[in-house]
Amino acid sequence: MAADDAEDAGLVRAMAAGDLASLAALYRRHSQVLLTQLVLLTGDQMLAEELLQDTMLAAWRSAGSFRGGSKVRTWLIAIARRKARDKQRRQRFTVVDDADLEKSVAPDLGPEQLVISRAEARAVADVITDLPLAQREVIGLVFGAGLTMAEAADVLEVPLNTVKSRLHTARATLTQMLAKKGYVR
To answer: Greater confidence, 68 or 54?
Structure first.
């Protein structure tokens, strides 16, 4: 177990004992990744922020049941997905517009490179929104949250080969769509 993973597990144990500071620390460490995943799933920043709060409250309440069978980040993403799925049952989501990709450009670029990078990021974000939800989720979990394919399979509750297949299909589709737009040759 990596140092960060061990520290996260310690925070969850402390949360189970009622330590609010540990909840705050866990929030600081994982909230941005969780929020990005929730925006990817819902397409709505405000709803994603609400679901993030629900996720952290659920993590607080269930900290005592965390057994360490997965990374804490994987556990939190699974909780977030369940919260989003529960909310989705009650309302219909719109297709996501992942504007966060535009903001992920390196800050040390010159003005011309910055404009080009933002345009390319926007093109990728637009293409990603056209992918089916299952493929968007896999891309978000593997590339956005940095989960392994096995961890993504656990979160999605599907076999590892399904994750591999979805990721392969998503990559191929993205390449084709970006080629049509002139971004890939």
So the answer is: 54
